[in-house]
Specification:
Chain lengths: 125, 125
DNA sequence: GTAACCACTATACTTTTGTATATCGGTATC
DNA sequence: GATACCGATATACAAAAGTATAGTGGTTAC
């Protein structure tokens, strides 16, 4: 069974479709997961590096969200046995492939903004 | 300037990229927007119809989320001047085109699940 | 020996999000 | 004239998510 027919099978039932898409949404839910993934798309980073690059994130949230992302197989955590220990975070292959989803979101968002500008007439420039 | 180069321009800066993608995420944030969009992908529906089709949603949340989706240009609300008044909700063209994003999410979600099964070994079947 | 960096964790609190339950004004059915 | 359907809104409450602030245990630099 090909990928396409599998897709159609899932779409048959609205409930299953919503559930499956929801799995993906949960990967990036919350305020901080996307900024973290965004930072890691440019390469591996250490904890403090992420803390500095992501404006206003607290270490508590960074720690929690990194643990979530690791549990979901999006981010991998590597501890280097140096003194003092260095910890590096990077995207897993699955996490990297998520950029495909983000690109489609970006593209749709830009289009949608173009379509709705003029109707709302808040700012045109 | 073509769509591709525009895309690259936005991606240049991680901050702008994250902001633009976030716009799209906000369209479906919360517990109920995806189920509502999912139901409307199969055609226009009335308030009570949606309430029946979406398990456990309260009229308060349905009302609120429909207003949000309307404000964001995803859903359009039509009042028919019948007695008693009938109100119909349907996706805007932009809302319909959002299924493109959902499809990519679905596809990635299925792939990701395949990739991470075995590592987690919670269930294989 | 004190000051600063790293990688976090702990506790308390506020804000946001969602739920439960009741109600409203209208119509139509029996 | 009681009951039920439609399209909601109001109020009060509970749960989840996020913030503020401080502290831990180790290391290196001066």
């Amino acid at each position: 069974m090909g990928k396409l027919s599998e897709l159609k099978q899932v779409k048959k039932c609205s409930g299953a479709y919503v559930l499956a898409v929801n799995d993906t949404i949960n990967v990036i839910n919350g305020k901080w997961k996307l900024p973290i993934i965004g930072a890691l798309l440019f390469g591996k980073k250490r904890f403090k590096q992420l803390e500095r690059e992501i404006p206003n994130i607290t270490p508590r949230m960074l720690s929690k969200e990194l643990r979530d992302l690791e549990a979901n197989g999006i981010v991998s955590r590597t501890v280097y046995d140096t003194v003092p220990v260095a910890v590096e975070y990077c995207l897993t292959p699955s996490g990297e492939s998520f950029s495909r989803v983000l690109d489609v979101m970006l593209e749709w968002g830009l289009e949608h903004r173009k379509n709705t500008i003029g109707q709302n007439a808040e700012e045109v420039q």
